[in-house]
Amino acid sequence: MKNIKALFLVVIAIMTASFVSAQFSSIDTTKIGDNEKAGHYIKIRGFNMYYEMYGTGYPLLLIHDNGGSISNFMYQVPYFAKNYKVIVADSRAQGKSTDTGDSLGYAMMADDYNSLLDALHVDSCYVIGWGDGAIESLLLAIHHPGKIKKLAITGAKLSPDTSAVDATAYNWALKYNESFEKLTQTAEVKNNRKVAHLLSFGPHINPQQLNKIQCPVLVISGDHDVILLKHTLLIAASIPLSYLWIIPGAGHSTPVYYKDQFNEVVDHFFKTPYKKIEGLDRFN
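The chain above was modelled as a monomer; its predicted structure follows.
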């Protein structure tokens, strides 16, 4: 009788796993970022923030790069929705989250995400941040301790100068910003201009501020990212509980061009207890 009951439970578990896997493997990635069933608007901090939710489980927040949108995570949403409640949003003034204000800043957007989590009654979550999203994630961890259980960031920077950014990329961003001055200042141009402004003039985070981060952080970078490798090393060294993963032959878009590795490594980081390796354990 016990064997029959055990067999029954195994069959149920397999059927459930198969159903969940089929459900999220069938997510139409072309609709991520424009999904009527998964999409919602919420009024927070003076603007309508657009977000989508997928899956069930422990909450996981995804924060996109400069000028991007929810669709940037088309390779992450189906993967993580199998085991997590994925929350992915368009940052202020980007994607469908329109904002007519004149100013835009990283701390402002970090507070937006904090308010989104509060509105969704999420006290703590995992977070993945890419580029500008990584900067906002760091600020979220600094200013709202306890909100993030574990954080994975890729392509983060603390300053907008050539101590952090490759000189070619830095000069390109300056010219990109200057190009908006020659255009007729329509509402769209003004919006794009304030988003682009972040590339050349922010953020300004003192590395010592990273000492305040209480959660484990996986710091990721391509070894040929526009963010200099030495700067990524500084970020990892400044965070008390950090791991460092440098992807060989990779640039800034690790969640796209190295999506399988990225998803698996980040997922393992979330699921595995953080281990501080010191002293003679460094030989292991």
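Residues 2-25 form the longest helix (24 residues).
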